Amino acid sequence: MKKRVLGALMSSAMVVSLLAGCSSGGAETTQEPAGDAGQEEAADNNTDTAADVEEAEKEVAENTEASDGELINIGFAQVGHESDWRTASTKSCQDVFSEANGYNLSFVDCDNDSAAQLEAVRSFIEQDVDYIIIDPIVSTGWDTVLTECEEAGIPVIVIDRTIDDSDKYAAWVGSDFKQEGLAAGEWLKAYADANGISEINALVISGTTGASAQIGRSDGFKEVADKYGWTILDEQTGDFTEDGGQEVMESYCKSYEGKFNVVVCQNDNEAFGAMTAMDNAGVTYGPDGDVILISFDACTAGLEEVKARKITADFECNPLAAPTVEEVIQTLKNGGTPEAEVYMPEHWYALPDAIVEFSINGEAQEMTEVTDAVIEAQY
Fold first, then answer.
1. Count of CB atoms situated within 10 Å of the CB of 304
2. Phi/psi class of residue 281: alpha, beta or left (left: φ > 0; alpha: ψ in -120 to 50)?
3. So where does this one cross the membrane (predicted)?
4. Closest by Cα among 261, 267, 172, 158 to 218
């Protein structure tokens, strides 16, 4: 990218030089003698001049093409590989920021290690990449390294989770996590009312503590629970993993046996683990069971469990941010200013007998029926 300015200047200089030469040749032709022979020679000279100009324009176009063909270097510091959602997010970026699309992607799986993620970003600065994408493991501790990015002149785009202690990034692309938590809560109220359930005693398996997804979903659901006087018996982290979800749910089944009728898992993988634990403990769940199981992410496997009547409702968190991130990068590349926040479109999913009308702060919500076609189209 940094070589393009030089290439463009050289191309411009070449055009000026060639056109100057053409003008000189044109001046000489006007001094040729009149008559048929002179006119023919003048015509030949003009033809040569036109050919020179055409050749010059062609060479400039070829140089411009070569300049535009230079790869844009992207550094991507990903959270890890803890879930189906994360895998889809990574694949989205790798597909969009490919060499075939004009990019060179340096990808680092930070394996849920905040220190490793900061080091990855500093490594990108040393590599002098053109842009840095960060999906922050936690929402704080970022101001120093983002200042370093700013001083190096490297724009940063934050995706998925948010950064709370710095605004030194060009744009954020992701989900409204609190809205997801509110949606789960308001849906549960409408579903409980439709099924004559007057008392809610919920257990929450939260995501990685301090992650904005965990904070937003917990805060949103708790806001609704407080509004309706529900009891949240406990909330423990499953770190967004299947093993974590199973481990927490096994503990819950022992500590709260017979005392809960709702389990909220903050992603599908935690829900899969919780299902195994409840199966082993003899606890029934889903639309036909004793426990309402709520999940987030709505990955393909999650929607399959909705269709299998195991997860009662699943609230989408869209992982396919890369095309939108590319739009941000192209805006920056062309000297524009992107929107500071871009929210991904998302849907709420259930089977027909769990689809109910509900609203969030007076805004009606739409639910999507889970069908084979919907599952096939999901990430």
1. 16
2. alpha
3. none
4. 267
According to CATH, the topology of domain 177-317+347-376 is: Rossmann fold (3.40.50)
| Contact status, residue 293 vs residue 252, Cβ threshold 8 Å | no
What does the block give as tokens for 71? 């790869």
pTM of the model: 0.78
Residue 149 has what pLDDT? 98
**Domain limits, the chain:** 72-175+320-343, 177-317+347-376
Q: What is the pLDDT of residues 126-147, one digit of tens each?
A: 999 999 999 999 999 999 999 9
313 has a pLDDT exceeding 90: yes
Pairing of strands 363-365, 358-360: antiparallel
pLDDT band at 60 (very low <50, low <70, confident <90, very high): very low
pLDDT at 33 over 50: no
| pLDDT surpassing 50 at residue 2 | no
Burial class (CB in 10 A: 0-12, 13-18, 19+), 126: exposed
Token pair, residue 84, equals: 């189906």
The CATH number of domain 72-175+320-343, selected from 3.40.50.720, 2.60.40.10, 3.30.70.100, 3.40.50.2300 = 3.40.50.2300
> The tokens of 170 are what?
């060009």
In the numeric block, the tokens 């340096």 are attached to: 106
- Spatial distance between the Cα atoms of 137 and 267, rounded to a whole number of angstroms: 15
Quote the pLDDT of residue 69.
61
Per-residue DSSP letter, 10? H
Beta pairing partners, 326: none
Backbone phi and psi for residue 263, each to the nearest 5 degrees, phi listed first: -125, 125
Does residue 322 have a pLDDT over 60? Answer: yes
Asked if 221 and 184 touch (Cβ cutoff 8 Å), the reply is: yes
